[in-house]
Protein backbone atom coordinates (compact mmCIF):
# COMPACT_ATOMS: atom_id res chain seq x y z
CA UNK A 1 0.00 0.00 0.00
CA UNK A 2 1.34 3.43 -0.98
CA UNK A 3 1.33 6.30 1.48
CA UNK A 4 1.04 9.92 0.30
CA UNK A 5 4.80 10.46 0.16
CA UNK A 6 5.66 7.33 -1.83
CA UNK A 7 2.76 8.03 -4.20
CA UNK A 8 4.70 11.06 -5.42
CA UNK A 9 7.64 8.82 -6.29
CA UNK A 10 5.56 7.44 -9.14
CA UNK A 11 5.73 8.99 -12.60
CA UNK A 12 4.42 12.54 -12.86
CA UNK A 13 1.22 12.98 -14.82
CA UNK A 14 0.27 15.88 -17.07
CA UNK A 15 -1.43 17.79 -14.24
CA UNK A 16 1.74 17.52 -12.13
CA UNK A 17 3.88 18.68 -15.03
CA UNK A 18 1.53 21.59 -15.74
CA UNK A 19 1.81 22.78 -12.13
CA UNK A 20 5.59 22.57 -12.21
CA UNK A 21 5.70 24.31 -15.61
CA UNK A 22 3.64 27.21 -14.23
CA UNK A 23 6.07 27.58 -11.33
CA UNK A 24 9.06 27.53 -13.67
CA UNK A 25 7.41 30.10 -15.92
CA UNK A 26 6.94 32.36 -12.90
CA UNK A 27 10.61 31.91 -11.96
CA UNK A 28 11.67 32.76 -15.50
CA UNK A 29 9.54 35.93 -15.44
CA UNK A 30 10.93 36.93 -12.05
CA UNK A 31 14.56 36.30 -12.96
CA UNK A 32 14.50 37.31 -16.61
CA UNK A 33 16.15 34.02 -17.57
CA UNK A 34 14.93 31.77 -20.40
CA UNK A 35 13.46 28.38 -19.65
CA UNK A 36 16.41 26.64 -21.33
CA UNK A 37 19.04 28.44 -19.23
CA UNK A 38 21.23 25.97 -17.38
CA UNK A 39 20.44 27.38 -13.94
CA UNK A 40 16.69 27.23 -14.66
CA UNK A 41 17.02 23.60 -15.74
CA UNK A 42 18.83 22.87 -12.46
CA UNK A 43 16.05 24.56 -10.52
CA UNK A 44 13.51 22.49 -12.49
CA UNK A 45 15.29 19.30 -11.41
CA UNK A 46 15.22 20.50 -7.79
CA UNK A 47 11.50 21.28 -7.97
CA UNK A 48 10.71 17.91 -9.53
CA UNK A 49 12.65 16.16 -6.79
CA UNK A 50 10.86 18.10 -4.05
CA UNK A 51 7.49 17.45 -5.69
CA UNK A 52 8.17 13.74 -5.97
CA UNK A 53 9.01 13.71 -2.25
CA UNK A 54 5.71 15.25 -1.26
CA UNK A 55 6.18 19.02 -1.48
CA UNK A 56 3.19 19.97 -3.63
CA UNK A 57 2.34 23.46 -2.34
CA UNK A 58 2.88 25.82 -5.28
CA UNK A 59 3.82 28.79 -3.10
CA UNK A 60 6.46 26.74 -1.29
CA UNK A 61 7.88 25.40 -4.55
CA UNK A 62 8.00 28.91 -6.02
CA UNK A 63 9.74 30.23 -2.90
CA UNK A 64 12.29 27.42 -2.97
CA UNK A 65 12.88 27.94 -6.70
CA UNK A 66 13.48 31.67 -6.28
CA UNK A 67 15.72 31.06 -3.27
CA UNK A 68 17.74 28.56 -5.31
CA UNK A 69 18.06 31.17 -8.08
CA UNK A 70 19.31 33.81 -5.64
CA UNK A 71 21.82 31.42 -4.12
CA UNK A 72 23.09 30.37 -7.57
CA UNK A 73 23.35 34.01 -8.60
CA UNK A 74 25.43 34.83 -5.53
CA UNK A 75 27.76 31.92 -6.27
CA UNK A 76 28.33 32.89 -9.92
CA UNK A 77 31.63 34.65 -10.57
CA UNK A 78 31.04 38.36 -10.89
CA UNK A 79 32.20 39.88 -14.18
CA UNK A 80 33.73 43.28 -13.71
CA UNK A 81 35.04 45.70 -16.26
CA UNK A 82 38.77 46.31 -16.16
CA UNK A 83 39.67 49.96 -16.02
CA UNK A 84 42.90 50.92 -17.77
- Main sheet record: none
The dominant shape is: globular
Percentage beta strand: under 5%
| SSE pattern | HHHH
Overall residue-averaged pLDDT value: 85
Q: How large is the count of helical segments?
A: 4
Can you offer a commentary on this structure?
- The radius of gyration is 16 Å and the shape is globular.
- It has helices at 4-7, 14-31, 38-52, 58-75.
- It contains 4 helices and no strands.
- With 84 residues, the protein is mainly alpha-helical.
Question: In short, what is this structure?
Answer:
The protein has 84 residues and is mainly alpha-helical.
Notable traits:
84 residues, 0% strand, mainly alpha
SSE layout:
Blueprint: H1 4-7, H2 14-31, H3 38-52, H4 58-75
Amino acid sequence: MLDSQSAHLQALDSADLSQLQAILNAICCETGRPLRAREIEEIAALLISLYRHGVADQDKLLSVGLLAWRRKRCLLPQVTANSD
